[in-house]
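Changelog note: in this version the structure field was regenerated for every chain. One regenerated record is shown below for reference.
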Amino acid sequence: MRITVSLISSLMADGTTRDEILEAYPYLEPGDIEAALGSFKERLR
């Protein structure tokens, strides 16, 4: 299953922690969240 960058960034903006995201989406790894946030930051430039 794919999780979009916008979903992860929205969850984080709403106050969801990395641990909560990893618990809700157990197939994600911590590096996946970091990569998504990095991609989101690049889009803002």
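Spot check on this record: The chain has one domain: 5-44. The mean pLDDT is 93.
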